[in-house]
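QA checklist item 7 of 12: single-chain prediction sanity check.
[x] sequence parsed
[x] length recorded as 166
[x] structure emitted
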Amino acid sequence: MADKNSDERSHRDLATRREYESPIVSFQNEMNRMFDNFFRDPFGPISLRETRMFGEFTPRVDVVESETDFKVTAELPGMDAKDIQISLEHDALVLSGEKKGEHEEKGKGYHRLERSFGAFTRVIPLTTEIEEGKVDAQFKNGVLTITLPKTPAAVKTTKKIEIKSG
């Protein structure tokens, strides 16, 4: 059961926009909320809305655990393998990189140049030991797939429990 304070925090952290507020007042309220969140928990997660506000890129990541391994899939459209770093650190998988893009268009009477960029870091905690020498990473069509095999000792400690219905 959640405590009363966590319920109040989650309610208070909800981003709201009141139609009668001017954009400047809304922006000031959002900045105040972000400062409040930072001083309450400076190392806490940043919301997707806040990352978009600062132009950061946050890739979607799926993690699937089986009896023998973890499979991590990250969507990294528009990136090259050379722009992505993968490491195992302190029982966690760390994905990081930087997305850089430039699109130039020239025509009669106009020249348009658009740039987009954003750095990201995703830390995925691992609950069991991994065979570091057998980790495999594949990058194809903007999708990174990492297979992290569990050690034999970790596989043996996993015991499936049968559920009986009555």
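[x] summary fact logged: The chain has two domains: 23-54, 61-157.
[ ] second reviewer sign-off
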